[in-house]
Please model this.
Amino acid sequence: MPQKSPRRRAPAMTPDQRRQAIIDATVPLLLEHGGNVTTGQIAEAAGIAEGTVFRAFTDKRELLVACARHETRHDEVEAQLALIDPQLALREQLTIALSVVDEHLHRAWSLLHVLHAAGVSRAEIAGEVHSKRSGDKPERFGGAISAVARLLERKRADLRLAPEAAARILLSLIVARRAPGEPQYDDVLISRDQLVEIFLHGTIHNGQGTD
Model:
């Protein structure tokens, strides 16, 4: 009878790596099931024993707050923006940039909505160190603004504003499109392409005046 090969153990993780792995497994569950997701479901999704969740986090609430803080950070957004191909046409670059920021906002605000419904407050998410970086204002996208400004830099001579000021305006358009509690203009459905078009060329056809 052939012998079974020994079962390989998963590689050991540092405490920070374990916490991150649990957060990564928890966020999709929160978006799907809301705040009622159980630690048993989380443990199963993470491929760990339920007790491991409580060795990484004091309780479920601490885990929920950690998920919110992770999803509202902008590091990953800034990294994705930095990877946009500089050889692409500017319009295509800006459309990709808006897609990156828009998807980040959708995920972050969806998660915050779930956690607020579960009784987790903005104050808890902000914390003393986190400084309320909830991503709900465009000026807090410092790194994202700088990344988009770099895309605009090669068109500096054609801009009416400095690249950073223009980037701030562009990101404010996508933030306003996603703003919680604001109408999403479903009747006209402003797309990312349309936002870039408005940003680059305004809202008047063929450069006609308003007189």
Notes: Residues 90-117 form the longest helix (28 residues). DSSP finds ten helices and no strands in the chain. The mean pLDDT is 83.
